[in-house]
Amino acid sequence: MASERRQTRSSDPLEAAELYLASTAKRNALKALTLSHHDGSVVAGAPSQLNVEAIATLATIAGAGTHPRDGLVNLVTHGHPITICNLDIEGHPHYLSAVGDDPSKVEDVEMALNRILS
């Protein structure tokens, strides 16, 4: 008998996005994984000891890319590297911010979040 790959599910799209991000962050040993609007508001995020609102705000300030661990970035990420990617979710621009050494493939995350949030 095949085992179910997802242990926790939700019919609520935002809660499902949170569960997906939490699973992805855990699988990739990320300190934080946050989806935010371009205005800095958080859409969904994996549970984290880091401030996800500050991470979302940092994404609007720093923009896409991998950023050096100094100044504001260091303060927000507690010295961990951050990669910020532009995502298109249902035709709307968003940021995906991954804090940690091994961000997952953005294309896979984008496809999954589009499916979940549709």
In short:
This protein is α+β, with helices and mostly antiparallel strands.
Task: Report on the architecture of this protein.
The chain has 4 helices and 5 strands, in the order αββαβαββα. It has one domain (13-117): Beta-Lactamase, CATH 3.30.450.30. Helix 1 (13-27) runs antiparallel to helix 4 (106-117). It has 118 residues and is of the alpha+beta class. Helices cover 38% and strands 25% of the residues. It has a 5-stranded antiparallel β-sheet with strand order 2-1-5-4-3, with helices on both faces. The chain has helices at residues 13-27, 52-62, 71-77, 106-117; strands at residues 32-37, 42-45, 65-67, 82-89, 92-99. The model is unreliable at 1-5 (pLDDT under 50).
Give a quick set of tags describing it.
single chain; 118 residues; alpha+beta; Beta-Lactamase; 4 helices; globular
